[in-house]
Amino acid sequence: MRNSEIAQLLGTIASLLELKGENRFKQIAYADAARQIENWPIPVEDLWKDGRLRKIPGVGEGIAKKIAEYLETERCGFLEELKEEIPLELLELEKVPGVGPKLALMLYQELGICSISALEESVRGGQLRSLPRLGQKSEQNILRGIETLYKQSGRIPLGVAMPVAEGIVAQLRNTCALQEIQVCGSLRRWKETIGDLDLLVSAMDAEPVMKAFITMPEVAQILGVGPTKSTILTSSRLQIDLRVVPPDSWGAALQYFTGSQAHNVHLRELAIRQRMKLNEYGLFSMEDNQKLAGETEEGIYQTLGLEWVPPELREDQGEVEAAQKKCLPRLVELKDIRGDLHTHTEWSDGRDSLAEIARAAERMGYQYLVISDHAQALGVANGLTWERFLQQRSELRSLEFGSGFQVLWGVEANILNEGRLDFPLDSFVTFDLVLAGIHSGLSQTRIQITQRVARALSSGRVDILAHPTGRLIGKRNPFEIEIGEVMATARSVGAALEINTSPERLDLKDIDARTARDKFGLKLALGTDAHSTKSLETMRYGVALARRAWLEPRDVLNTFTLRELCDWIVRRRAQNNPLISR
DNA sequence: GCCGTTTTCGGCCCGACTGTTTTCAGTCG
C-alpha cells in the first residue's frame, strides 16, 4: 500500500505552494487531498487501476492526474518544477516553532538561509534584526523554538500522556473553583500519540484558574499567558494548553478543542451551508447572529442535523456523512469486554503468578482470562517447553474461582523461519487458545515475513495472530509485512488478528483494524499482553483503538460470552481440520 | 484545485496570542 507515500507527495506540494505564496486555496486543496489519502483504507493504486481516483474526497481532475502520473512514472513533473523554484530544505525551517511559511521564505530570500543550523548562526550573529518586524523577542523566540525542536523526541505515546493528563486534571479540580474540566484534543480522541495536551475549563472567572495553572509544580516554562488561554511546558517537556470559557459556551468549546481540525472544518462548512456560523463560543444564525446552541456538545451536533459523534471517530473519515444519515456505528465499549485474550505469568517472563493475575482479572469483572505464556523458542522470555506447559496446566486446573469466571489455557507461540511453530503442529489442539506471533528475524524482507506469517496461519493451528506488525511506538518500526495478504490468509482459515492493547504497541493500528473488518470481515481480538496484573488495565487503550477503527461489539472477540468464544474456537478449528473436535 | 439542498462560477473555517506596531500580519491550533 503506497497511500502514505502519495500523501507525502501531495503534502510536499502543498507546503511548497504555501512557501511560494501561491493561491491559498490551491495549497489547501493539496493538503486536504493528502490528509484524505493518508487515512484512506483502500490502496490508492487499486482505485487508480479501476479509474476511480476521484472517489476520494478532495481529489479532482488535477490531483488525480498527478497521482496517476506518479504511479505510472514514479515521478511528478509539477513537484519537480516547484523544487526548482523553492529548495526543499526550506520545509525544514518551518519545523521550528514560530517559523511559518512567510518567515521561512523571507529568511531564504533575504539572507540565503535554508537550514536550521544556518538560522541559528544568523540569529546569534544578529543578522535577523536587519529584517522588518523582527526584534529581540523574535530572536529569543526562534532560539527557543530551535531548542525545543532539538530536544523533542517527537510525539508522546498515548499511554504516557493519559496518566499525566489525568493527574493534572485532578490537581486543577482540587486547587481552584471551576465548573468543568476536560481533556480535549487528540488525547480525547485517543490518538496513539499526541503532540501536546489540551485542557478545557469552564468557569465564570478565568483568572484564578489561569493562576493555578501556571503555578503548578510541573511547570518549567510559561510560553504564553492571556486572559482566556495559556500555554506552559512541563519539566518533562510536555506542552499543555489551557483554555477557559464561560459555562454557556462549554459544549461549543468542547467540540472545537477536541477536533480534529479536519472534522471541525467539515462541520463549519456544513454550518455555512445551513446559514449558520460555528466557533468555540457557539453555533449562531447568520441572519441575526442569534445563538442556536453552545451549552452542550450534543446540542451543536443536533442543531447541525447530526447525531452526536464519539470523539474517537472525529477524523473526517466518513463520520460526518454517517452522522447525517443517523447511521453511526454502535461502537464497542469497555463494559462490553468480557475477558482478556493475551497475558503472561511468571511461568515465562511475567511478573506475577498464575493465581495472582487470574484473581486480578476476576476482580475486574471478567468472565474469562486467557493465559498465554511464551513457548520454548523464545529463550530470552523463558519460553516454556512442552513438559512445563503440561505442568502449568496442572497448576491451572488446581485453582478455584467463582462460578462466573474461567481461565483458558493458551500459548503465545513463535512464528519461526519458514512459518514453523515451536511444537509439532498437532500438539497445538491441546491448548484452549493458540496465539502466535513473530519475535525474531524482524529484519527479514517483506516477502519473507509475509510468507512466514501466511504459512503459520495456513497451518490452521493459529487462532489469533499476535501483534501483527511488531511495531513499538516511537521505538521500532513495524516489520516489513504485506498486511493485506496476511488478512486474506487469516480470512481463509477464520483466524482473528490481535489488537495488542499495550500502549507501547497498539498493534494492529486503527486504520489497519478498520480494513481488517471492512474489507476482510475479520474478527479482532483485544489482548493486553500483560506481564503483570497492573497491565491488565491497558485494555482501555485497546478499546479506544477499536472504537477509532469503527468496530462494534460483534467485531471484537472479547465481547463474546465464554460459551460463544469456545464455540468460535471449535468452529474455526473444525473448519480447518474436520477431524479435530474437542 | 475542489466543489454544489441557493452556485458549473465564485466561493473556500475561525479565533487567540505575539511582536512590533499605531492597525495588523504571522503563527498556531
Polypeptide structure, described:
This protein has five domains: 1-86, Orthogonal Bundle (DNA polymerase, domain 1), CATH 1.10.150; 89-153, DNA polymerase, domain 1 (Orthogonal Bundle), CATH 1.10.150.20; 156-245, Beta Polymerase, domain 2 (2-Layer Sandwich), CATH 3.30.460; 250-324, DNA polymerase, thumb domain (Beta Polymerase, domain 3), CATH 3.30.210.10; 334-581, TIM Barrel (Alpha-Beta Barrel), CATH 3.20.20.140. The chain has 23 helices and 17 strands. The two termini are 40 Å apart. With 582 residues, the chain is α/β, with parallel strands linked by helices. The radius of gyration is 27 Å and the shape is globular. α21 links the parallel β16 and β17. The strands form four sheets. The protein has a seven-stranded parallel sheet. The structure holds one DNA strand of 29 nucleotides.
DSSP, total strands: 17
| Average of per-residue pLDDT values | 90
Molecular shape: globular
CATH hierarchy: architecture of the largest domain: Alpha-Beta Barrel
Examine the coordinates and then state which fold CATH places here, giving the name of the CATH topology of the largest domain: TIM Barrel
Helix percent band = 40-55%
**Quick one: biggest sheet?**
7 strands, parallel
**Level-1 CATH class name of the largest domain:** Alpha Beta
Q: How are the strands of the largest sheet arranged?
A: 11-12-13-14-15-16-17
Gap between N and C termini: 40 Å
Going by helix content, strand content and strand pairing, the class is: alpha/beta
Please compute the radius of gyration using only Cα atoms.
27 Å
Counted by DSSP, the helix tally is 23
Full CATH superfamily name of the largest domain: Metal-dependent hydrolases
Uncertain stretches: none
β-strand percent reads 5-15%
